[in-house]
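Lab channel / #folding
Pinned by the channel admin:
"Please post every new chain as: sequence first, then the structure tokens as a reply. Keep commentary short and put observations after the output so the thread stays searchable."

First post following the new format, from NK:
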Amino acid sequence: MQPEFHPIPLGAGVEKETFDEQMREFARGYWGEQDELEPIRRFTAAMYGVNSRQLTAGGTVYQAIGIFPIGGTADGSQPPERVSRCTLTVSVRDLDNPAPHIAAAGIAETLDQSAHGEAQLVTLPAGPAVVHIAGSRAVWALADGEQERFFVRVELWLPFPEEDRVLLLCLSTADVQDLFHYQAVLADIADTIAFGDAEDDPAAGDELVPQAHPFG
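Reply from TO:
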């Protein structure tokens, strides 16, 4: 993971008291130590704590907030123009997987039929996979009227080479103008994925066409 990602505790395998303290530490790291921020720190710890338990129950093994500077120069002579934020989750799900290339083709077809977003078969160092990009709209009813916000989501579905499971990476952001940036971020992560010590199956991607830039 890039250093811009800040892991959020999931609480798997730890006592409630330990998990609560992990969430308090996360909230302090996110908001800082100022005394006047204690109410928002408590709210953040409680909100992410509930969300973490739900994600863990659904097979999530990693979650993080990404805080990426946009613009500026690498040497720091010019400061970033702005800061872009995203969330990243990594989960493992059960899936009937007769062979990775067959499973990937089935995932792509299913996502295409959903009529939400765009799915593309790709070949990664770890095997055949599917990239799915979709958008969504959220509306809140507030006292002074409705407020809407748009989100974009980039998913990577990667079947396990020898198990009936699939690895799912989901990166989402409300900074929709940064879609191409986050496609590149997830592509860099995808290139590092490996399944244990299993050797690559040269036949796994025979039915797929390798993509030079699979994430766009």
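NK: The longest strand covers residues 127-142.
TO: also worth noting, The two ends are 20 Å apart (CA to CA).
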